[in-house]
UniProtKB/TrEMBL annotation, chain B:
It comes from Rhodosalinus halophilus. Gene3D superfamilies: P-loop containing nucleotide triphosphate hydrolases. Belongs to the ABC transporter superfamily. Residues 10-241 form the ABC transporter domain. GO terms for molecular function: ATP binding; ATP hydrolysis activity. The lineage of its organism: Bacteria, Pseudomonadati, Pseudomonadota, Alphaproteobacteria, Rhodobacterales. Transmembrane segments: none annotated. Keywords: ATP-binding, Nucleotide-binding, Transport. This is ABC transporter ATP-binding protein. It comes from the Bacteria. Coiled coil: none annotated.
Length: 527, 269
């Protein structure tokens, strides 16, 4: 007793108790499963993983250093790009929609196909991995930061104006500081995403790093190595995620509740206007693409221009066959991605709602979910392939797991946003928990649910294409892998374009549904 | 036009404000001619939503009038603001949560492009009763303390014109009375021209040299009541017959304004 009182670290133990206990239970469960008869061909327990890591400490250390350095470089570059883009969009309000649309389009590029293209564009070296890591992080920082730059109350700007100072002073003294919590929230999510991007870059043909080791282990059916690599990737991501969160809490004394991707305007523009905007964004994207290829005078064999993709898919005599192959593969992919995505959404929202009815369980589940959200799920793709086989079940499960955690965490945060006074009104009529849930908590959850659903759409596409690339040999991911190994760059570029457009279309569809639902149930969320 | 010596007076000519909204035009302030003498404290009293805050914001130049002009000692509000000649105390204390109390007060000097003197800031904080709270962040302060910190921020630039929009709005009754007694001494000593928006009749009489009673929207002047009580106001002045008489007069003018506006005035609320 006297020790516990004299050591502040021990006194804080109760706060750490829940996640610690949950972690211990997970580890024991994992070890127990691994010791089941017949499990050794699929599952390596924590003990085996630890042994493997001790034996291969040098190899693992070198690989981790390589991947970590790439992830760190991508993290810095991607977030710098996000800050620059957000400031640009803020400074040019007329161009904001265009910048946001282009940023989304680039975010929707399928990383597994972008990797090999970047590899031929850059030549050997860590360039593609770093770029992929940057691509994986910039959007989730850009969106909240842009929100954060506008998040300050109007009187703060009046205060600045009352001393005769203008927009620049308001930006320096108010907006940048007010945006910091949003930046921290973005950076926190970015840490695991950067690691994921670097590993996906290594999957697609690097020389060194954890991604390369993962591919090797998977091909050799080396169960211990596969589990050890996934464990290290997960632990590193969790550690960085926690460290940034901790630094953020130290830096910000009272962080406000941050909604990462608030909904767009209530009354959307007319369909004609929308088409016009989409057309403009598309035209600018094509011009940028063409301009970049021409500016660096890149070889037409692997650096395809918009015209080449158009010819490949539309005007060439074999275009019909190309289209059939590409869209057939895309159909196969969507047949797995859509159920997995919907299952992840439904499970995440349902579990969050269920836990609200059992608040004690929620306080235990929250830290575990927040921790597991930091795991770059795609890096565990090999495990899921090991566990569930190369059939559709494994792919659907991976996509669902990938979507589950961000949606679950967002929904728990959303449910907690139901205003206390409104809940008190329900209590004053002795309304039951179901009534409270239906009329107060669910409406408060909806914006967070939709925001996470939109943001995780590209993640779902990434998950499905990675599994197809690595393991199942079906769908558009496998088509990309095949095209990359055959140097069929026209098909690879076409696949990138088509997958990105499909993802953007899904995003737009969700946005429309979101507008309708929120207008009905959570009108105050729309500006 | 160069500024005249001494605390500046304010001259509003035909000043009006209309807001164009989806539901049509909203007339917040009807065309008004107003004069405020330099170095005096004037209270603007009126029912909620009558446009008194809008009037104050137009004088500060934070809101452009739809018609008319504002001159502060011959200058436009923008000119006065540019040399940090005025300070606004907002209904919400509007302290930046990431800055300490001291940092928030120093920010005003920084925005005014002046050097911050930590000792002077500390003295000012002592004056508003925040001694020892310089390194505290606003989140850890009570509502009344935040208001006092905001007032310290207003005073630190030694403005010629102080515009206060219900600065004690978010404060409990007891603190409110204390502030109403203590704070005017700070600006009276400097001869600052002060405009003070409130809907508390007692506060208006207690603080000001003159009370302007405004009608329900669109704001017109219902009564212009000089307050002849001795300055600085003595402890317990609220209990004197002279004070009660003035408070009566202000209340009666408020009621008259509401009655004249009639059901139309109520409908406009």
């Amino acid at each position: 007793m006297s020790t516990a009182e004299s050591l502040p670290a021990l006194r804080r133990l109760p706060a750490l108790g829940a996640p610690f206990a949950a972690g211990l239970v997970l580890i024991l469960l994992w070890e127990g499963l691994a010791r089941l008869p017949g499990a050794e061909v699929l599952l390596a327990g924590p003990w085996d993983v630890a042994l493997w890591l001790r034996e291969n400490a040098g190899l693992m250390g070198r690989a981790l250093a390589v991947t970590g350095a790439e992830a760190a470089a991508g993290f810095v570059l991607g977030n710098l790009a996000a800050v620059a883009l957000a400031l640009l969009a803020f400074a040019l309000p007329r161009a904001e929609r265009l910048i946001a649309a282009l940023a989304l389009l680039v975010f929707c590029l399928p990383l597994v196909a972008t990797g090999p293209i970047l590899r031929v564009l850059y030549g050997p070296g860590p360039g593609p991995q770093i770029t992929l890591a940057a691509l994986a992080v910039y959007y989730t920082t850009f969106v909240p930061l842009l929100v954060g730059l506008r998040a300050a109350p109007a009187t703060w700007f009046d205060m600045v104006a009352s001393y005769g100072r203008g927009h620049v002073a308001a930006l320096i003294h108010v907006r940048l500081f007010a945006a910091l919590p949003y930046l921290v929230a973005g950076l926190q999510i970015a840490a695991p995403a950067a690691f994921l991007g670097a590993m996906v870059g290594e999957f697609t043909g690097a020389e060194r790093g954890m991604g390369v080791l993962t591919i090797r282990a998977l091909r050799a059916l080396d169960v211990e190595a596969t589990w050890a690599l996934a464990t290290v990737a997960a632990l590193v991501s969790i550690a960085v995620y926690a460290a940034i969160g901790r630094a953020g809490r130290r830096l910000l004394n009272a962080p406000p509740p941050v909604l990462l991707a608030p909904p767009s305007a209530a009354r959307g523009p007319s369909p004609g206007r929308l088409l016009l905007r989409a057309g403009l964004a598309g035209a600018v994207a094509l011009a940028l693409w063409w301009g970049a290829m021409e500016a660096f005078d890149l070889n037409r064999f692997f650096a395809k221009r918009p015209g080449d993709v158009w010819a490949f898919l539309v005007t060439r005599p074999e275009a019909g066959a190309h289209r059939a192959e590409l869209f057939g593969a895309l159909g196969e992919t969507l047949a797995l991605a859509v159920p997995g995505y919907l299952a992840g959404l439904a499970l995440g929202a349902a579990l969050a709602v269920g836990l609200t009815l059992a608040p004690r369980a929620a306080s235990l589940a929250m830290p575990v979910a927040v921790t597991l959200r930091a795991v770059p799920i795609v890096t565990t793709a090999p495990l899921i392939v090991l566990l569930m086989g190369r059939g559709p079940a494994g792919t659907i499960a991976l996509v669902a797991v990938m979507i589950f955690f961000p949606v679950f965490v967002a929904c728990l945060h959303g449910l907690a946003r139901a205003p206390g006074q409104v809940l008190d009104v329900f209590d004053s009529y002795a309304a039951g928990p179901v009534q409270r849930l239906l009329h107060a908590q669910l409406p408060a959850m909806l914006p967070a649910f939709f925001a996470s659903a939109r943001m995780s759409l590209p993640a779902a596409m990434l998950a499905v294409t990675v599994v197809e690339w690595l393991a199942t040999g079906r769908g558009v991911g496998a088509l990309m892998a095949l095209s990359a190994s055959l140097s069929d760059y026209a098909m690879l570029w076409s696949a990138v374009v088509v997958v990105a457009l499909a993802t953007v279309a899904g995003h737009a569809l969700l946005g429309a549904a979101e507008g309708r639902v929120l207008a009905r149930y959570a009108g105050e969320q729309l500006r | 036009m160069p500024a005249e010596p001494g605390p500046p007076g304010i001259r509003c000519e035909g000043i009006a404000k209309r807001f164009e909204g989806p539901a049509g035009t909203l007339e917040a302030v009807a065309p008004l001619d107003l004069d405020f003498a330099g170095g005096r404290t004037t209270a603007l009293v009126g029912p909620s939503g009558c446009g008194k805050s809008t009037l104050l914001r137009m004088i500060a130049g934070l809101e452009a009038p739809s018609a008319g002009t504002v001159r502060i000692g011959g200058e436009t509000p923008a000119e006065v603001r540019t040399r940090a000649g005025l300070a606004v105390g907002f209904q919400d204390p509007s302290l930046l949560p990431w800055r300490t109390v001291q940092g928030n007060v120093a920010l005003a000097l920084k925005l005014a492009r002046r050097r911050a003197d930590p000792k002077a800031i500390e003295r000012l904080l002592t004056l508003v009763g925040l001694e020892g709270f310089g390194t505290t962040r606003p989140g850890a302060l009570s509502g009344g303390m935040r208001q006092r910190a905001a007032i310290a921020r207003c005073l630190v630039t030694e403005p010629e014109l102080l515009l206060l929009d219900e600065p004690f709005g978010a404060v409990d009754e007891l603190t409110r009375r204390q502030l109403a007694h203590d704070l005017p001494r700070l600006w009276e000593a400097r001869g600052t021209t002060t405009l003070f928006v409130t809907h508390s009749v007692t506060e208006a009489v207690l603080i000001s040299d003159r009370v302007l009673v405004l009608s329900p929207r669109p704001a017109r002047v219902v009564a212009d009541i000089p307050v002849t009580l001795e300055r600085p106001r003595a402890e317990g002045v609220e209990l004197t017959p002279a004070f009660a008489e003035l408070a009566e007069a202000v209340s009666a003018a408020l009621a008259r304004g509401a009655a004249e506006a009639g059901p139309k005035g109520l409908a406009a609320q």
